[in-house]
Structure formats: C-alpha cells, structure tokens
Amino acid sequence: MARRPASDLATSGEVFHLIRTGEAVTRAEIGRITGLSRPAVALRVQELLAHGLVVERTDGPSTGGRPPVRLEFNASGGVVLTAALGVSRTQIAVCDLAGDEVARSDGYLDVEESPSVIVPMILDEWDALLGQAGVPASAVRGAAIGLPATVEFAAGRVQSTRVMAKWNGVAIPPLVAERFRVPLFVDNDVNMIALGEHRLVYQGDADDLLFVKVSTRIGAGVVAGGQVQRGALGAAGEIAHIPVREGLGAECRCGNVDCLEAVASGAALAARLRELGRTAIRARDVVALLREGDPEAEALVRDAGRRLGDVVSMAVNLLNPDVVVLGGDLADAFDPLVAGVREVVYQRATALASRRLRINPSSLGERSAVAGCAVLVLDHILAPDAVTHALHAAPPAAAVPARSAVRA
C-alpha cells in the first residue's frame, strides 16, 4: 500500500489488512505506509486490539529502552461456522480466523429433506461443536453453507427444481439468523471447493483454475483471474448435464439422456458394477473395488475418465485454465481416472490451451469442502470495509479460550 494523502486517511480495516498480510507489523510502519499520525495509528490499532483481531508481541530483547512491539493477526480472535452438505457426506465445522478447523463432525444428512428440517440440525451441530471447543457463541463472526445445488449467491437462495427441490426458492440466511446473527454466505459446494483450492494451494501460481468434483454426482467450479465465476444466475460450472458421445441412452435425473453425470459419476459406475454382480452403492465402493484389483472397476473408472475428459476438453478450450484439479470421492482412484482424462484432453483441446495445462489431484482432500467454506466467509468478513463496519457496529468481542482441535 503506497503512502496515502492526509485527505484519504486509512481506515481501521485497511490497517488490519496491512497487519494481516504482514505488510506492516509495527505502528511506525503503519504510519509510514498510510500517512496516518501517531495518534491516529494508535486509535486504529487500539480498536483492533479491543476486538481481538490483532495481538501485540514483544519481539527480541530490550537494549535498554522499551522492547520492540510487533502487531500480529490474531487467528484466535473469533471463529466462523461452516457446513458443507453433500449427497453422501456432510461436514460441519468450527474454524478459527485463519480457516483452521477447531472442531468438526462428519455425518450424513438427507439433502433432499426440506430446509426447515435440515437447517435446524446444522444449527444444533454448530452449537454442539462450539461447546466441545469451549468457544462462546459471542465469538462467532460469520458462517458459510455449501450446497450441492445451484445457488443465487447474492440472496443465499437455492434455485433448483430437480436437485434439492424442497429448497427451491428458499432464502437460507433468515433461517440461520434466528440463532446466529452473523453474516452468512451460501454457495454451490463445488464453487467453495474451487475457491479453497485456489487460495490455499495455487494462489500466486495459477490465477485460472477449473475444479471438477467427481463423486456421487459431478460438478465444476471455475476460478478466472483469481475470482470464482458464478455466472448471471449462479449456474456456471454445470458440466454434469453436458451430453457425451456414445452414452448408449443412459437416462439422467435431469430428464435428458447421456449426460456426463449419467455415465461417469460415482453413482453411475456403482450401478454398472451392481449389474456385473459386484457390491457397490456409492463412489467410495467403486474406489474400494479398484484398490482390491477388480479389473471391471478399473476399466469403468478409466472409461469414465475419458468421458470426463471429453467435457473437460471443451471447458479447457473455452476457459484456458492454468490447472484442472480433480477432487471428490472418485478422484481417490486418481491414476486410472486421470489417465482417461489426460488421454482425451490433450488430444482434443487446442495446442495453445493445453501447452502448459496441468491436471492434478486435489491437494486438500477430504478437508476441501470445509476449507472452501471457511475461505469464502473469511474473504468477506475480513475484507477491509467489512472489518471497519464491524468495528463500528459491535462492541468488543468476547475472548476465545485457548483450545486444541476437536474432531467428532
């Protein structure tokens, strides 16, 4: 941040940003960068200290005068609540302000149930996890919910008539505000995972990323220029319902035939294996058979990779990403899956779009959904303008006790 003129004084949120990013770690550095007077710097720093967003550290030995004091971002200055709902698995967690898990529970929720049933269950689990971690509800600064459906992001409203139909048209923030009066962000689950992969793994290395989740169902999240692309109505990334060639008339839950999801998802492969006499219900069962050396499972996964590669090659030509990241339960069978994907993508994508293209497995693994939720909410609530508003709108936050991670 360049030195600012006195007529454009830095806000407390901007001072916090300097401390959080490490651009300025002393009051003198803040004054030099912002042009603020010493009293103005002291006032803003005091606000941040009182609200628990910043802590002071004595750095190094004293040489006779006052020991040097450094300012640090306080990741323990509050928590955010996250819930990543999936068709086969739901993860609910409490994370600190750095996005690290404080407590988490994994389980199953029937996402086809109505939000009037599911949302109270999420709220109860958040309460339980806060209790396990010894964190007061007053320390909660924001929340995020990821859903396996199309979401109108600005309104936090599901727009889906076939998937999660009972949620269609329902705005989720008012339901959460009945218990937690904090900013809530609702998004498609794959958008959140794509954001998490970009921020935590590829930031500074890849501004353009395509994340493909291959699990019970299939979805994609697009990061372009470092920002998630949701489209006009939140429907960007719906690759699951692009028809593939030679799908042999497979019926899809959307009403069409030969959609990618109908022939290459974990649910589709499990159904095919059951026809062959194997015991397989979900994507994880397909991966288990593959690891046992089942040749039919390996052949099906490799073929699914080719079908996926057919659609991904179109996306590569359209978006020209730096990296394609494969995640989800079926991505645990990465070698045969990516072999099929690479075979087709490098054959059908243009030479320029594929010249430096990387096709990698998810680096975040099973924690990708929670991490993505946390990144989404933290990007918003710790932005300079949001911090400034929060400091002026609320009293100092309750202290969060020292804690260690808890996993249910």
UniProtKB/TrEMBL annotation:
PROSITE patterns per record: HTH_ASNC_1
Pfam name, any one: ROK
Similarity-based family: Belongs to the ROK (NagC/XylR) family.
Protein name per Swiss-Prot or TrEMBL: ROK family transcriptional regulator
The species this protein was found in: Bailinhaonella thermotolerans
Lineage per the UniProt record: Bacteria, Bacillati, Actinomycetota, Actinomycetes, Streptosporangiales
